Amino acid sequence: MRYGIFSDIHANLEALGAVLNELEKADVDEMICLGDVVGYGPNPNECVALVKEKVKVCLAGNHDVAPLGGLDVQYFNYVARKAIEWTAKELTEESKVFLRALPMTQAYETFFIVHATPLQPEKWSYILSMGDAEDNFEGFTQQTCFVGHSHSAWCVEKSEDGRLEGREQYPILLNDGARYLINVGSVGQPRDRNPDAAFGIFDVENKTYEVRRVPYDIPVTQKKILKAGLPELLAERLALGQ
Ligand code: ZN
Q1: H/E element, 113
Q2: Domain range for residue 106?
Q3: Residue 150: predicted pLDDT
Q4: How many other CB atoms sit within 10 Å of the CB of residue 232?
């Protein structure tokens, strides 16, 4: 079984299209989305429709629940808040029904998926340090947990003796005795200084995981963001990957 796993689309239709295209070429068996289908970007309904059509399991992200009133907007900074208010007005009833039904987590035999953290999914905390990662290995029992939320692709390995180490050479061969916490990065708003859309391919039988990047037409998305009257910063940051 080969899974295409991605997260944080953020209503960026051009980035989502590029990722789906790559995953179709890679001939994965199933696609999984770890949440934040909407928010920040100019095409929330189009992205919801594509995810609905192509993705087997989609989780809820904080930007999916916020425009439905599921999370206090005061929790967000000014730019995010503006985008959430815009998204709330833009979403069709059909999109809202889809977003409202998204689960917070899902457990598979060998892996677990969640948008923010396995330890406290509903708190929407970030895993930003080795200390955060260490705590979060307590939040799942499977070998591997895939997360999104911070928009940076990374992989932390916890070896049998409990040592934590960042793995940067892809593809990664998953060792039987070790456990893994993996951030698949962001499709529609990468913040790891690489503007290309990110996604992961997880091969269960071959025990490999790799993160891939694909360029997309950033100027088209930027123009749409400005035309929609969304904050300029949201357009600028796409080209910078931060
Ligand atoms: Zn996000």
Answers
A1: strand 111-114
A2: 2-240
A3: 97
A4: 12
- How many angstroms is it from 160 CA to the middle of ligand 1? 32
Please report the sign of the dihedral spanned by the C-alpha atoms of residue 93, residue 94, residue 96, residue 101. positive
pLDDT in tens, 108-131: 999 999 999 999 999 999 999 999
Domain CATH for 121: 3.60.21.10
**How many domains, in total, are found in the chain?**
1
10 CA from centroid of ligand 1 (Å): 7
Q: In what order do the strands lie in the sheet with 197-203?
A: 57-58, 30-33, 2-6, 197-203, 208-214, 172-173
CA of 192 to the centre of ligand 1 (A): 13
114 forms beta bridges with 105
Distance in Å, CA 13 to ligand 1 centroid: 15
For ligand 1, a single-atom ion, the residues with CB < 5 A are 8, 36
Q: Please state, in angstroms and rounded to a whole number, the distance separating the CA atoms of residues 238 and 67.
A: 22
CA-based nearest residue to 41, from 149, 150, 185, 188? 188
Give me 69's structure tokens. Answer: 């009133």
- Tracing tokens 């998305």 back to the chain, one arrives at 221
What pLDDT sits at residue 76?
87
Question: 5 CA distance to ligand 1 centroid (A)?
Answer: 15
Q: If you measure from the C-alpha of residue 6 to the centroid of ligand 1, how many angstroms do you get, rounded to a whole number? A: 11
Ligand 1 centroid–CA 64 distance in Å is 9
